[in-house]
Specification:
Elements: E1 4-11, E2 15-21, E3 27-34, H1 40-53, E4 58-66, E5 68-70, E6 77-80, H2 90-98, E7 102-106, H3 107-117, E8 127-132, E9 136-142, E10 145-146, H4 179-182, H5 185-198, H6 203-209, H7 216-224, H8 228-252, E11 256-260, H9 268-281, H10 286-289, E12 291-294, H11 301-320
Parallel strand pairs: 1-4, 4-7, 8-11, 11-12
Antiparallel strand pairs: 1-2, 2-3, 5-6, 8-9, 9-10
The structure holds zinc ion.
Length: 321
């Protein structure tokens, strides 16, 4: 498929990215949309059409990563914590609207595909992937294969409990004190606000006084500028993250834990505190065999992984003839 390409779509809890990607993983065009809770299908179609019109290459297939429980093999979105997608045959609906082969999978599984094939966990056969944005998505590669569980529901690493008496989990989860309740974009905004109020002379405090909304990206920006209050807010989340990772590393004994999603823009400000907790609390030898790394493709892992799944579909079609 020298001059052909595929389109990878990453649908998050709040935003969508569609990219036109060739077989060498070059991205030719990016289309951005806000994810609208009740118009998911239309939003995906509009972004794919924009990406399709922006390229003069032939688009052969579309891969879509969604923040949902996806039935393996059918592309039916069965349940979703953040969007109105329940029992929606997304693959078939999109294939009909777009008149192209479509593959649908969980967004964090897509991110895991990108990072384990081409990115931060290349060559590794035992990988834990966390994508941290609106919530936490997860993917597990066990002995080279994606762990899916009985119904595709495995890998929900955001819902391991790190404090049984902790705050209610956001979204539809009935539990308390899940990792996702402590580590996410909204959780960083909340922790940033708390630090801004406690320390009005800090960069965060001055931003709040100036009327700027304390958001995850603002906290990250000020932390990179060296503001101690912003750094401390991120370190608090990193410590919680390390507790969650300790559970995962003790259970799965991975070679690599990859952290992607919007929050990884904080880089080592987030990951170093997590590594410190792992070093202190994790069992040996798993502790000494694991690396904690940022996703190579940053926020684009999910889109590129979805494109990778679409490339698989094209390969299957070509092998059939
Ligand atoms: Zn939960």
């Amino acid at each position: 498929m020298a001059d052909a390409c595929v389109i990878g779509v990453d649908l998050g809890g709040t935003k969508l990215l569609a990219g036109t990607v060739d077989a060498e993983l070059r991205v030719h065009h990016r289309a951005y949309r806000l994810a609208r809770r009740d118009a998911v299908l239309e939003t995906i179609v509009a972004a794919v059409e924009e990406a399709r019109e922006a390229t003069d290459r032939e688009v052969r297939a579309v891969g879509v990563g969604v923040p949902c429980l996806v039935e393996p093999g059918t592309g039916v979105a069965m349940a979703c914590n953040h969007l109105a997608l329940v029992d929606v045959p997304l693959r078939d609906l999109l294939a009909e609207r777009l008149d192209l082969p479509v593959v649908v999978d969980n967004d964090a599984t897509a991110a895991l595909v990108a990072e384990s094939r081409w990115g931060a966990a290349r060559q590794a056969r035992h990988v834990v992937m966390l994508t941290i944005g609106t919530g936490i998505g997860g993917g597990l590669l066990i002995d080279g294969r994606v762990l899916r569980g009985v119904s595709g529901a495995a890998g929900e690493v955001g819902h391991i409990v790190v404090d049984e008496n902790g705050p209610p989990c956001p979204g539809n989860c009935p539990s308390h004190g899940c990792l996702e309740a402590f580590v996410s974009g909204p959780a960083l905004a909340l922790e940033g606000l708390r630090r801004a109020q406690a320390d009005p002379d800090s960069g965060l405090g001055r931003a709040l006084a100036a009327g700027r909304g304390v958001t995850g990206p603002l906290v990250t920006e000020l932390a990179h500028d060296g503001d101690p209050a912003a750094c401390a807010a991120i370190a608090t989340l990193g410590t919680h993250l390390g507790v969650g990772m300790t559970n995962l590393v003790n259970v799965f004994n991975p070679e690599v834990v990859v952290v992607g999603g919007g929050l990884v823009a904080a880089g080592d400000l987030l990951l170093d505190p997590a590594r410190a907790v792992l070093a202190e609390r994790c069992l040996v030898p798993a502790r000494d065999q694991v690396q904690v790394v940022a996703a190579r493709f940053g926020e684009e892992s999910g889109m590129l992984g979805a494109a990778g799944l679409a490339l698989d579909v094209v390969g299957d079609l070509e092998s059939i003839g």
